[in-house]
Write a structure and sequence with these properties.
This is Amino acid ABC transporter substrate-binding protein (PAAT family). Keywords: Signal, Transport. The chain is built from twelve helices and 16 strands. With 298 residues, the chain is an alpha/beta fold. The chain has two domains: 145 residues, 3-Layer(aba) Sandwich (D-Maltodextrin-Binding Protein, domain 2); 93 residues, 3-Layer(aba) Sandwich (D-Maltodextrin-Binding Protein, domain 2), CATH 3.40.190.10. The strands form five sheets. Strands 8, 9, 10, 11, 12 and 13 form a six-stranded mixed sheet that branches. A hairpin with a 2-residue loop joins strand 15 and strand 16. The radius of gyration is 22 Å and the shape is globular.
């Protein structure tokens, strides 16, 4: 009798345990009220982009400008912060699957991503696309990439654009680390990457001695904080939008950028000035994002 009972209950227990395991990997909170009630904010950040979101070798913690922004939000909400390190190829699924409450992970705002996620405006940063290559390659123009093998990382919005526009043979690897190693090993003639990230890399002797960023930056695109599409128009979206507005208005983003020795961004300078601009003694951009908000404020 005991054996029969065991056989009957075991599948149910296995199923229940499986569900519990899955739930253990899900953020589960979607609204601002739920996050506050839970007492914890789960934020997805990059774990392989120097200065923006990367794992510190000594502490093992994920640090960088975007983890600092996540901490600022958690502190303002009065909740604990849990960081989830993600790669480029994992970012969107982390939000869609409920693994994180919000995503602050060098995510560029594209029409395709607007269909999948709720991208918060105003944007909090901006970058373009450039090339990291050995000085000996002597690349000068983007058209020089025709039929050349260049590395990138899977999920980057510009992979197809570079292939179609310039005829490059783009090899999209799973992570930034794999792409960088392929460049070091000579398996690629160059690395197609964000110009801000390349600038940070070139501060290190291991890159500065033999490598260069030779091109004019292309495909300049703003970055967005992302949340679940289910929260579109909700209190979490409104809170994050207002937070970014305050960041631009009070110069906080520039302060954090400077604290990480990231090269000053023209985008942040322009946004700081725009959000502090007044017309007839009223804010040009207002105090919130709405259909009448000037495009320059976004």
């Amino acid at each position: 009798m005991m054996t029969i009972t065991y056989k009957i209950l075991r599948p149910a227990c296995v199923t229940l345990l499986g569900m519990l395991c899955l739930l253990g990997n899900v953020a589960q909170a979607t609204s601002l009220a739920e996050i506050k009630q839970r007492g914890k904010l789960v934020v997805g950040v990059k774990k392989d982009v120097l200065l923006w979101g990367y794992q510190d070798n000594s502490s093992g913690k994920i640090i960088g400008m975007e983890p600092d922004l996540a901490q600022s939000i958690a502190t303002d909400l009065g909740v604990q912060l849990e960081l989830v390190g993600v790669l480029t190829a994992e970012r969107i699924d982390a939000v869609k699957n409920g693994q994180v409450d919000i995503l602050i992970a060098t995510l560029t705002d594209t029409p395709e991503r607007q269909k999948e996620l709720n991208l918060i405006t105003p944007h909090y940063y901006s970058s373009g696309v450039n090339l990291l290559t050995r000085k000996s390659e002597n690349f000068k123009e983007w058209t020089d990439l025709k039929n050349r093998r260049v590395c990138s990382r899977r999920g980057a919005f510009y992979n197809r654009r570079v292939t179609v526009t310039y005829g490059a043979d783009v090899v999209a690897l799973y992570s930034n680390d794999w792409s960088k190693q392929a460049l070091r090993d000579g398996r690629c003639a160059a690395l197609v990457y964000d110009d801000t990230a390349i600038a940070a890399m070139l501060r290190a002797p291991e890159w500065a001695n033999d490598f260069v960023m030779p091109m004019t930056t292309i495909f300049t695109t703003p970055w967005s904080i992302a949340i679940s599409p289910a929260e579109r128009g909700g209190d979490l979206e409104k809170y994050l939008s207002k937070t970014i507005i305050n960041w631009h208005r009070n110069g906080y983003l520039q302060q954090v950028e400077k604290s990480w020795s990231i090269p000053p961004s023209r985008f942040l300078d322009d946004m700081h000035k725009t959000w502090n601009k007044k017309v007839d003694n009223k804010w040009l951009c207002g105090d919130s994002i709405n259909p009448s908000t000037p495009k320059e404020c976004l």
